[in-house]
Structures are given as C-alpha cells and as structure tokens.
Design a protein that fits this description.
By secondary structure, this protein is mainly β. The chain is built from two helices and 26 strands.
C-alpha cells in the first residue's frame, strides 16, 4: 500500500493547510494539528497525514498513509510500481497483505509483523489481498527518506516476525524502528529515527522521547488528548523538538502511531513513487522506469521540493 504522491500532496501553489495551534502543558513547544488529506489508492480510501504543505517531513519520515478498516467488497490491490530513495514501512492492525517485489520476495504480512523495504537506487513491488483473505484490512504504510550516503545503494527487504515492546504503565509501545526508552527495534535505520505503535489505556501515558528529535502522533483508532486538543484519525499532531516525553491521554483503549527522528538535513523532492534530493534525481528515476516498464506520470514544470 504505497503512494503515489500527487500535486494535491506537494504542490506549493495549493492553498496552505490550516494548522490549529494549541498550547501544551508546562514549557513544551506548542502542538500543531494538521488535517490529513483523504484520497483513494485503487479502491481503498486512505488518510494521508504526510506530506502536507503545512508539514512535509517529521525526521526522515516523509509519507504516512493510514488505510482502512476496508470494506470486504473493496480488497487491497496495488499493482507493481517503482520506488527510489526511500524505505517503505508497512504495519497492520488487522487483516493480511501479500508483498511481492523485484528482489524475488513474496511475503505475507499480518498484524504484529513488520515489512521494511529499502528501495535505494530502485525496486518495484506490489501489495494485494491474498486469495484466502481476512474480511478487512487496517494499517499504515510510511516512507522514510534515505540520506545521501545510502540513497543510491542496493535495494533490500526485511521482515520482522517479532518486535520489542516497552511497558508504559498500563499502556504499551511496540517499537517498529529506532529506540523508545531503553528498547530498540532490530529494523534497519539509516538516520536517527523512531516509530512506535502505542496501545493506550484510559488515563495518562508518558512516552520518553529524545529532546533533540522532532515527533508527531497519528491516531489510528480512538482519540488522544495532546496538550489542549483532542486528536482523532484524520489528522497529524506535530510536537516539534525540545520534549523529553510525550504526554498523551485517552478515555478508552486507543491505538496511535508515534513517529520522529533527527530533523532531516537534506532536501526532499517527492513525485509519484520516487523520493530524491533534486528534481534531476526524480526525472532520472522516471526515465529509468519508463525505459523498461512504460510511461510514468510527468512531474509538473513548477513542482518544488
């Protein structure tokens, strides 16, 4: 389940997304609540939290699609498509997806198991509902922009059957990538990065974070109180830097995704299913794809990073 990025996501001429700013507790930075854009991939509705004009990246995270729960009559079916300069991170809360790629990988992904594909110089993959599928699928796919050192490296795929967990009082976090507290995921990271699935119980939960990293929360199910606002599915709450913990409140069992990392130092150009450090990089990726597989969407002449 991935992409494509369209002009509605990255066009700098589009109207600026309204950003609601609310004052947090103590002396922490303010919280920005940025609405996601609702779009459709194939027949599946998704909530695209990144990229938005008001918030392009969080650390190296440059794309967050929250999809489902899907209707049984609209199964996931994303045809083979390319990627360059990024990693895809796929995490399910419910259902099943079958991943195939040009490395020869065929991997069923189910809840609690992580797929991470590093595109590097280039890879193609597809994602679809298996023949004997669950009645619904619910999850997220994210992209991580690769730094200059590994952007043009070899493609790689990894699947993690088990991931470490961190207790947070009655709540808990599954650490998908990076480190939360003293718990570190085995998944590959090319920049200082964190991604965690938070299972929140009613009450207040405190999640330790790195104060020099920026962070955001995407609610997957339920509602989360952050600072003076209540965040539900369909928005991204950007928390900035300067926090040693993220304080979240819930009135019922809730699922949320914490993403963050060191602010990404390189320019990030995104178009279709490509990520690169310049317009020329994206145009070359498009030409490489078209030389083998046929036409790809043209980047608008005025497209900016």
């Amino acid at each position: 389940m991935s992409g494509p990025v369209s002009p509605a996501d990255v066009d700098t001429q589009a109207p600026r997304t309204t950003t609601a700013v609310v004052e947090p507790v103590a002396d922490a930075p303010p919280v920005e609540v940025v609405p996601a854009r609702e779009t459709t991939i194939g027949t599946v509705a998704v909530r695209r939290a990144l990229p938005r004009r008001a918030r392009r990246t969080v650390g190296a995270w440059c794309f967050v699609d929250h999809f489902g729960p899907t209707d049984v009559n609209h199964p996931m079916d994303v045809a083979p498509h390319p990627h360059t300069g990024l990693q895809t991170v796929t995490w399910l809360l419910d259902g099943e997806l079958l991943h195939r790629d040009s490395l020869g990988t065929e991997q069923l992904i189910t809840p609690g198991r992580l797929n991470l594909m590093t595109a590097g110089h280039g890879v193609a993959h597809s994602e679809e509902a298996p023949e004997r599928r669950a009645p619904s699928v619910h999850g997220v796919q994210l992209w991580v922009a690769l730094p200059e050192a590994t952007r043009d490296g070899a493609a790689q795929f990894e699947h993690h059957e088990q991931l470490p967990e961190l207790g947070l009082g009655p709540s808990a976090a599954t650490v998908l990538v990076g480190t939360v507290g003293d718990v570190t995921s085995p998944a590959r990271t090319d920049t200082p990065l964190v991604g965690a699935d938070l299972r929140l119980h009613a009450g207040t939960t405190r999640v330790p974070v790195h104060p020099e990293h920026e962070h955001a929360v995407v609610v997957l199910d339920g509602a989360v109180g952050i600072g003076g606002d209540v965040v539900r599915p369909g928005a991204l709450a950007y928390l900035g830097t300067g926090r040693e913990e993220v304080v979240l409140s819930a009135t019922e069992p809730t699922r949320a995704l914490l993403v963050g990392g060191e602010p990404f130092p390189d320019p990030v150009f995104m178009w279709w299913n490509f990520v690169g450090h310049s317009r020329a990089c994206i145009e070359q990726a498009q030409a490489d794809w078209e030389s083998v597989y046929g036409p790809a969407p043209d980047m608008p002449a005025d497209q900016q990073p």
